[in-house]
Amino acid sequence: MTLRADLLPALAVFESAARHQNFTHAAEELHLTSSAVSHHVRKLESRLGVSLFQRHARGVSLTAEGRLLADAAGSALADMDGVVHKLRTQGDEQARIRVTTLHSLSYTWLIPRLPDFSQRHPELRVHLDTEIALTRFDDGGPDLGIRYGPGHWPGLSARLLMDDDLFPVASPALPGFGEIHAPVDLLRHRLIADHSRQGWMDWFRATDTHGAPVDEHHTFSDTSDALNAAAHGLGVALARRRIAEPYLASGRLVRLPGPLLKARWSYYVVYPAHRRLRPAASRFVDWLLAQGQA
Asked: Keyword annotations for this protein (predicted)?
């Protein structure tokens, strides 16, 4: 006898009934009535010409023929479930984009823009990693990264995302804020620094302010932490424009008098030079570059 498609629902119901050895429990699992389960089992028995269950007052139990079919049906369904899970996992992985970047850039620049990407590509999923350690782009690792630096890293392709500028900022609530009229006035306040290659000494040198000591009173490893501290009135911070945008837009920070200092480094999108980007990651790179140009 050839297995016909119309028997597949009955086989699925039988497998559940055989596993539970109970029609009522099978009905609960399959969201059917007990009579519907019994109907499917009797249909299967009729087509096969054998009894699959022994019916008795306390319930049902498998016959030898029923045990043989139950073992085969259970194994087949388990194999199918494994294949379906594998296919679903592969589909999810193809839709996943693994990105590594700096916490400061992620928090203030990338995350506010992600809803736009999600609206354009609702089927894609972004996995964002902001570990400060230098990421290795091994198999199974990130698809791409956003780095702040000189633009060349061994083994990586680097595409310019955007440049940056530095300038001083402070909270309008900072005591003495209204008395800041020139760069030299900043020296009367506590200066907040981060671990960037360029700092207050570079900026004051660009203003031709000489003679007065430059004391970096508070230092933070993360640029967004330095700006947050300034927004709470701790002192005056030297901001990178790309990181400071949301603080300036909300009015929590205000740019202070003095020139823009062009940053020596820029932001780059990087990915392994030895392998081609997956389609999902390539779409994310195109979107990133458009955001950087905007």
From this structure: DNA-binding, Transcription, Transcription regulation
